Amino acid sequence: MELLVFDLDGTLLNAEQQITEYTSETLRLLTANDIPYTLATGRTIHAAQHCIVGNDFPLLHAYNNGVSIWNPASSEYLHHNHLTHEEIDVVLKAFALQPITPFVYTVEPDGSHAVYHAAPESDIGRKYIDKFVDKIGIPRKPLETLHPGAKITNINALGLDHQVGAICQQVEAGSSHLVVYTGGDMYKQGYHWLDIHHIDANKGGAVTMLKQELGFDKVICFGDSDNDSSMFEIADEAYATANALDEVKALSTKVIGHHNEDGVAKFLREYYSL
Fold first, then answer.
1. Reported pTM
2. How far apart are the first and last CA of the chain?
3. Under the phi-then-psi rule, with left for phi > 0, alpha for psi from -120 to 50, and beta for the rest, what region is 50?
4. Which of 26, 66, 145, 150 could serve as a FRET partner for 14 with CA atoms 20 to 30 Å apart?
């Protein structure tokens, strides 16, 4: 049996961060034809839920670029590859040299989620809170209250290209256990996002775990960005959307339609004769 694995932003979602009705109908057709699918995204579960609401993703999900595996049937997590507080110190020192606010995402001892941050240093930091943090309803806490019992999943931020680049260089030089994903923000022109994880946390490892846990023989992946490369490398088939990075297209089995034109859904309807 084969499992379909979808990235969200730039792949299954359109430019409005939504699954269109056409794509929703395609997912229902997959279910009706017993074709299993799931998602592997860089988003946290909270940031993903408002994008996929109204659509059924019944199998295990991969969040935070593979840091967390979530079981929607039991609402339980399989957590691994968290960041240590020593690694966080390396990251925060890099941020201290730039006017960018870091947002530290955690799983609390009781299993709840939180995001820790200092007061935003710029308008973009305040907009990040309004558009991404408060919108998804995750509790915000002062960075100085970050405690040893918090399991740190990732650090996320948004800023100007040269500022993000400087942080990336310093983080990668300061710790061999960290990896930084970055790219142009598709929702805020002129800005770049960055997401910092433990180096062993990636979509490739997560998808391999999903394949084993769920008992599939084959995996078919869909994506567009650098954080999708690791799952493209382990996939039996991998399809890049037309808007994907060139390096992701180079790893793909085939380049399909644009994410803003239901590219994945149109491909699936033809692939499976839905």
1. 0.78
2. 18
3. alpha
4. 66
